[in-house]
């Protein structure tokens, strides 16, 4: 038997460990393959927090619609060639769920500096700002309401979905009005319609649905300059490769340039208006 010196044995152990690590680690070429893990699983999981017309969910069937839902479905089925699964979540959890790998994409996220610390973003699918809908017959509000100063008063209640970009936006500018934070779109809308809240702060496109559905009483305050002007995009995990992100961005840029996104927005708005009438 050949006896190895202590140095030789240590050297052999180091070489063996290095070989084992090289064999277990994926190559950079494999890492660069777009959406490889999604394709391997055969399903694209889309994190879904309801915010019409971006993301809508039929209460009876559980089916998702809305223009971000359609974009996620089309990207999964026609680009990645996999099934698409929508995972229910809330706006409070939509970033944390993405970080913990509960889904692959978070839909309809505002690209904010705070969120960019935790996740990455695709290119924008559309723009966003905050408007506030109110009942024009509400005696607590002036007839010529045209600024945030007109509503930022003690006794005025503003409903908003907790954890959203609009929650952060109005929290920064309203110092006297009471902010009523609620879990979802249905709850905030009901608070306004039942007059438990005097105003509803939400995305400008979402609030357009309410004013068009109820022109007899609903009107909107659009702050000037626009409040929380941002881009709305898909959220992805921080470790998403540049190649993966390029595939998603290329898809979105094509949809925006072709006018497909605008058509999806119009379809989603009309669909929501029909649902509200029924």
Ranges where pLDDT stays below 50 over 5 or more residues in a row are 1-32
SSE sequence, one letter per element = HHHEEEHEHEHEEEHEHEHEEHH
CATH architecture label name of the largest domain: 3-Layer(aba) Sandwich
What is the share of helical residues?
40-55%
Estimated radius of gyration: 24 Å
Give a written overview of the molecule.
Helix 9 (204-213) runs parallel beside helix 11. The longest helix has 19 residues, at 6-24. The chain folds into 2 domains: 37-126 and 231-277, Periplasmic binding protein-like II (D-Maltodextrin-Binding Protein, domain 2, 3-Layer(aba) Sandwich); 129-229, Periplasmic binding protein-like II (D-Maltodextrin-Binding Protein, domain 2). With 278 residues, the chain is α/β, with parallel strands linked by helices. Mean pLDDT is 87; it is low at 1-32. The chain has helices spanning 6-24, 28-31, 36-41, 67-79, 94-99, 113-116, 165-173, 185-193, 204-213, 242-257, 260-277; strands spanning 43-48, 56-57, 64-65, 83-88, 105-110, 120-121, 126-135, 157-161, 178-182, 199-203, 218-221, 227-236. The protein is built from 11 helices and 12 strands.
